[in-house]
User: Fold t-SNARE coiled-coil homology domain-containing protein from Stephania yunnanensis.
Amino acid sequence: MDPLSAVSVELAELDGRITDIFRALSNGFQKLEKIKDSSRQSRQLEELTDKMRECKRLIKEFDREAKEEESRNTADTNRMLSEKKQSMIKELNSYVALKKQYAGNLENKRADLFDGPGDEEGPGEQNVLLASSMTNQQLMDTGNRMMDDTDQAIERSKKVVQDTINVGAETAAALKAQTEQMSRIVNELDSIHFSIKKASQLVKEIGRQVATDRCIMALLFLIVIGVIAIIIVKIVNPHNKDIRDIPGLGPPAARRLLWDQK
Assistant:
């Protein structure tokens, strides 16, 4: 027979919810052992911390409900509820100690970024052993103090993670700006290369045109020189038979003879 069958539905429901959280914490810490990345470990510890806070709240609610029903329960039932509550507190403290140990490991990994608090010797196992000799209030106070310490460690870890994210974002922005600048430089180099290519083609065309013009000018110059040479020869030696038949360059006497024949 289930011992909680003699208590109210509220207490049985609280016990079931607390048991579910303990199962989730056990699975969460098993998953945490397989995670190697510090950032993911920090996020996993945050999730586990939220579950521990919820579990602590439910244990307080369980204790309050048990005290309200204490007058209506038998002595055996009240003793069973007290032992159940103490067992819950011990189990929660064991998870708190385990979380503190993981948080301390993260602190050691980031020792170059911030100063982590020194861990107590044997934090997990030692706290579990001492829990059996503590009263309920001492257990609650110890659990609260340990959770406060681990919360501070998690906050420092979160700050480091956020700083890392900010540095990564700034680096990504700088790389993006440099990439855009390099892209603009490549585009400008392409434009310059295209302009140089067009200028080279234009220079070649101008060179060919100038060469053609020079050839034409040289030919015209030779023609002019030849004409001048013929004129000079005709003037110097008007009876030269080699140039007598050139139109317009015949001797004056021949031209007068032609007029006289008319």
Observations:
- The domain at 3-173 is CATH 1.20.58 (Methane Monooxygenase Hydroxylase; Chain G, domain 1).
